Each structure stands twice: as structure tokens, then as C-alpha cells.
Amino acid sequence: MRQDLILLPGLICDARLFAPQIEALADVAVPFVPHLDASSVGEMAEAVLGAAPKTFALAGLSMGGYVAFEILRRAPGRVTRLALISTTARPDAPEQSAMRRDLIDLAKSHRYAQVMPRLLPKLISAGRREDADLKRIVVEMADAVGPQAFIHQQTAIISRPDSRPDLTRIAVPTAVICGDADELTPKDRHEEMAVAISGAKLAVVPGAGHLATLEAPDALSTLLRGWLGA
């Protein structure tokens, strides 16, 4: 029986972030990738819950993980299982918020085209930064999301709460997945979550960066298939 699966994308990403998994898991999952466009993770969570089926499996990458935590705070009984990918339970650090505000200023001053050259090296592992196809997908997603939604998303990320106190209350099968070349949310952030969540299983994907679903699609699809069957 196929499960309803909500896939929450990261900053400046859309359904293309999960395209390989949507195809690979078609026999076991009915996917839904919402457009996250609001200035707080609370508003994002409410929009997702309003469009979601009664119960669902929930996977979030980066910003999507922050929204997943908020969904669990608001409606824990609706989530049947959880996958946290390339994310962290910690709030934004001051230096991260400062960088985000600089990027917001670019977008507000009609210089959105300058955002991706700054972000791209952080989103893709060092070994894949010359991969033209991968870079094209990321840039196309950013163009599709656009400057206004980008501003909203960065604002939501800056103001997100600390989710670490909530980790011990998570009581559904949980997968914690990261790439070992992720510079934005390194392995120790995932170890922290996996230790705190009862029964969580940690998987580290060799060579993958922050956008692990695109950099290591087969590995991510295999891990998510196992999680859906847990």
C-alpha cells in the first residue's frame, strides 16, 4: 500500500529537489511537495497542514526540516514517520543570520541574480561544483522560487525556534540523513539529533553535500525506501 509522503524542500528549492526520489519511490509513496512561501516556519507549517492528508510520512531537507519540527509541535498525531535530511535542530547562529540579511538586502535591491553565486558553493559539495547539470538544476529552482519568496524564506529561517528541546518527544520512526561533505549542516548536527530522538537511525552518505537528494539520488532513494518500510 502506498503511503502519503510530504517532502519539504530547502531554501530556494522546489519539487525538483526530490525528483529522483519521487520517481524511485512511486511504487510505495504518494508524494506531495508544497511551495514554502511565508515569513515564519509557523505559517509554513499551517499551510502544509491545511493541504495535507489526515496522516502522512514527513521528510524535510534543510529549511524543510525546520518546518517539519514545527509541524510535529502543532500536529504530532498526524505524522507517521519522520526523515530529517541535511538539517539541524539548532536555531540560526548570529553569523548565519547576518549572512542571510545580506542576501535579503540583495534581493530587495533588485540584485537577486547575485544571490546564487554566493549560495551555490555552500549548497554543493566541493567535488561537484563544476557539475554543469547539477548547477543548472539548482539555479533553475532559485529562479522559479524568485526573490520575494526567497526573502520570506530567509526571514522564516532567521526567526525559527530552537527545536532541540523537542527532540526527545519525537515518537515515530525517524531517519536522520546527511552527506559527509555538507558544509552548511555538518555531520555533528545530525549526530546530535539522532542521539536525542529515541530509536532514530543515522545515515551518512559519502561524498554528498547539502543537496544530498540531487548529489546522491540513488543512495537517498534507498535510504528513504527503507525508512518508509520501517
List keywords for this structure.
Rossmann fold, six-stranded parallel beta sheet, alpha/beta, 230 residues
Describe this structure in words.
The protein has helices at residues 19-24, 41-51, 63-74, 94-108, 115-123, 132-158, 187-196, 212-215, 217-228; strands at 3-8, 29-32, 56-61, 79-85, 174-179, 201-205. It has 230 residues and is α/β, with parallel strands linked by helices. It has a six-stranded parallel sheet, sandwiched between helices. Helix 1 (19-24) links the parallel strand 1 and strand 2 (29-32). The chain starts with a strand and ends with a helix. The mean pLDDT is 97.
Q: Helix amount, in percent?
A: 40-55%
Strand order of the largest sheet: 2-1-3-4-5-6
The stretches of 5 or more residues where confidence is low (pLDDT under 50) are: none
Q: Round the mean pLDDT to the nearest integer and report it.
A: 97
CATH topology: Rossmann fold
- How large is the count of helical segments? 9
Tally the beta strands.
Answer: 6
| Number of individual domains | 1
Q: What are the secondary-structure elements, in order, as H or E?
A: EHEHEHEHHHEHEHH
Task: Determine and state the CATH class.
Answer: Alpha Beta
Structural class call reads alpha/beta
Instruction: Give the end-to-end Cα distance, rounded to a whole number of Å.
Output: 14 Å
Largest sheet: 6 strands, parallel
Gyration radius (Cα, Å) is: 16 Å
The name of the CATH architecture is: 3-Layer(aba) Sandwich
Which percent range describes the beta-strand content? 5-15%
The CATH homologous superfamily name equals: Alpha/Beta hydrolase fold, catalytic domain
